[in-house]
């Protein structure tokens, strides 16, 4: 954080103060550089611990919005960063922007597993030069933002919604168009974008969406059992209880350092997202954000229907492999059933062992993990992205009847920082999780080299993203820079959907949404729903796009979710009656 402050000060040395802007909260001045005007750390809401964001604060005099400000409180063991008073956002506009000609607005939600991250890491210069306004908010993280017990739930998502309301009410003062807002995010930020598409709280606050390496149907996007980690962590504070109110009281009384230490998660398996969004009970939560399973909301057609770009990088799992060392690989291998994703947490030991055996045989061919890098990369890649993103794109095209564009990012250049850090010892071609960010943003404090090929790709990539923000079409016309049109995903449930490969050359390929990561989806459909004879918990996204076997149906109950593609459920199959949609535990949201 000290480095960010220094770099911000260095930027100031090259510019001057902007004229004062008059907002509803008060007057403020930002920093003007040769190409843009930036207003840092503007408070968009107030919040007390475990309470929803309140109205934005006002101030006297002129607020000098010149420095990055604090991150939201988070642990980077053994240190902690940030503070709880963190609901601020940065606004960046092309220099010379005036309110008389409003520009498209792009709002970025950072990733970080709902545990880490800050708005200060995303330098927007490459987007700004295309004539858009860029806004990056902070939101509460970890237990402070995603504890889900009693009437406390999804506070981080509600923070984001508060930021979107602030943008609606104030962005015109900066020259941004409140009626042309694109919400985009990466990883956990992308799943959050997808959840805003499903929440009545965010209705009308944005008009397009870009989801990079995440979706609300990802198996890790929601916590199916949020009480379990809360009970475990409150015990570290000396309170042995399963009373939701007592859990909230104990966490509320703890100091910030105690709270972060007790809720810090050092695991790097697929249970990593232990504090993450959840489905709320509308009867017990005041002003809920999400009251039904994402799949059920999509199938109800009662959601915020906007054009969308959806995609992933081709080696998503390489980053997660790189987080391991030999010790953690041995531990994962020796305790594989215990390291299954949280969606299988409530399954019996026997079922966990069966799931583990299938996964291990499929991905690792019974070889030691430490001798099977490619298998582990495929394991994580399918879990993070392929088990959900192609199906989500196809489902969204079908249910929204809006333009949906599918992509795979595979570009390799000097700025593939995540691959350089986490995949240096693995000889696999492609990009890994987060590499795409380094071709959209210029991370502060990370002066990565830029070759002529990299510059061409940056120009092409950011042109498509900003074209979409402006018009809803990433390739409204062909040019030397972008020599082809990007086809939309058909809304008629075709088996294969056109997908743009973003590499050194643009190439339209096709992806079969039904056959991506089939083992993961078969296991989710067989074991990840309520009513299983083995006692497995509801997997709120289960059974889209992949029918369970007849044996699984007989043994584990009937899935409650309608399948994605009608071709999978025909009267001739004899299984039609088993797949009819039944109501979710919670009603579909009202818009």
Task: Jot down its keywords.
disordered C terminus, 3-stranded mixed β-sheet, disordered N terminus, 18 helices, 591 residues, globular, 12-stranded mixed β-sheet, 17 strands, alpha/beta
Question: Can you offer a commentary on this structure?
Answer:
There is one protein chain. With 591 residues, the chain is α/β, with parallel strands linked by helices. The chain has 18 helices and 17 strands. It has helices at residues 2-12, 125-128, 142-146, 155-170, 188-198, 227-235, 244-253, 256-263, 294-300, 317-322, 326-334, 349-364, 373-386, 389-400, 417-422, 452-471, 518-527, 550-556, and strands at residues 16-17, 21-22, 27-29, 31-32, 36-43, 62-64, 74-76, 79-81, 88-94, 103-109, 133-137, 176-186, 208-212, 308-313, 404-409, 496-502, 506-512. A twelve-stranded mixed sheet has the order 1-4-5-9-11-10-12-13-14-15-16-17, sandwiched between helices. Strands 2-3-6 form a three-stranded mixed sheet, with no helix packed on it. The protein is globular and about 65 Å long. It comes from Eumeta variegata. InterPro entries: AB_hydrolase_fold (IPR029058), CarbesteraseB (IPR002018), Carboxylesterase_B_AS (IPR019826), Lipase_GDXG_HIS_AS (IPR002168). One of its GO terms (molecular function) is carboxylic ester hydrolase activity.
């Amino acid at each position: 954080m000290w480095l960010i402050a220094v770099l911000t000060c260095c930027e100031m040395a090259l510019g001057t103060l902007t004229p004062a802007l008059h907002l509803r909260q008060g007057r403020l001045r930002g920093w003007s550089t040769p190409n843009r005007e930036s207003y840092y750390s503007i408070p968009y809401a107030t919040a007390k611990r475990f309470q929803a964001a309140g109205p934005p604060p006002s101030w006297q005099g002129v607020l000098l919005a010149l420095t990055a400000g604090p991150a939201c409180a988070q642990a980077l063991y053994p240190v902690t960063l940030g503070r709880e008073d963190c609901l601020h956002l940065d606004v960046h506009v092309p220099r010379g922007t005036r309110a008389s000609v409003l520009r498209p607005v792009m709002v970025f939600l950072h990733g970080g597993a709902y545990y880490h991250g800050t708005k200060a890491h995303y330098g927007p210069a490459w987007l700004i030069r295309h004539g858009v306004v860029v806004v990056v908010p902070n939101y509460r993280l970890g237990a402070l933002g995603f504890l889900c017990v009693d009437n406390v739930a999804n506070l981080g998502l509600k923070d984001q919604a508060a930021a979107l309301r602030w943008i609606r009410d104030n962005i015109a003062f900066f020259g941004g168009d409140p009626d042309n807002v694109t919400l985009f995010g990466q990883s956990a930020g992308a799943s959050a974008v997808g959840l805003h598409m499903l929440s009545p709280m965010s209705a009308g606050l944005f008009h397009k969406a870009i989801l990079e390496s995440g979706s609300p149907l990802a198996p890790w996007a929601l916590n199916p059992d949020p009480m379990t980690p809360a009970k475990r962590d409150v015990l570290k504070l000396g309170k042995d209880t399963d009373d939701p109110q007592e859990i909230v009281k104990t966490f509320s009384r703890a100091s910030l350092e105690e709270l972060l230490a007790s809720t810090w998660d050092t695991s790097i398996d697929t249970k990593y997202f232990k504090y993450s969004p959840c489905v709320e009970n509308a009867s017990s939560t005041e002003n809920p954000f999400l009251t039904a399973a994402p799949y059920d909301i999509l199938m109800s057609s009662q959601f915020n229907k906007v054009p969308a770009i959806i995609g992933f990088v081709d080696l998503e799992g390489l980053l997660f492999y790189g987080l391991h060392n030999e010790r953690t690989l041995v531990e994962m291998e020796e305790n594989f059933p215990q390291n299954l994703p949280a969606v299988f947490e409530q399954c019996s030991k026997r079922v966990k062992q069966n799931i583990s055996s299938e996964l291990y045989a499929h991905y690792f061919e019974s070889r030691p993990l430490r001798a099977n890098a490619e298998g582990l990369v495929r394991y994580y890649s399918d879990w993070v992205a392929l088990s959900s993103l192609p199906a989500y794109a196809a489902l969204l095209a079908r249910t929204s009847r809006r333009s949906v564009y599918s992509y795979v990012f595979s570009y390799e250049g000097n700025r593939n920082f995540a691959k350089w850090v986490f995949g240096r010892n693995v000889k696999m071609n492609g990009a890994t999780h987060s590499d795409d960010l380094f071709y959209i943003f210029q991370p502060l404090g990370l002066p990565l080299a830029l070759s002529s090929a990299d510059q061409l790709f940056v120009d092409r990539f950011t042109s498509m993203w900003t074209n979409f923000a402006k018009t809803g079409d990433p390739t409204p016309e062909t040019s030397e820079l972008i020599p082809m049109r990007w086809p939309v995903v058909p809304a008629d449930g075709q088996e294969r959907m056109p997908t743009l490969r973003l590499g050194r050359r643009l190439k339209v390929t096709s992806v079969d949404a039904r056959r991506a990561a089939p083992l993961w989806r078969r296991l989710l459909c067989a074991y990840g729903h309520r009513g299983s004879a083995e006692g497995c918990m509801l997997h709120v996204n289960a059974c889209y796009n992949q029918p369970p076997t007849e044996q699984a149906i007989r043994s584990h109950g009937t899935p409650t979710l309608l399948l994605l593609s009608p071709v999978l459920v025909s009267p001739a199959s004899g299984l039609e009656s088993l797949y009819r949609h039944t109501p979710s535990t919670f009603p579909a949201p009202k818009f």
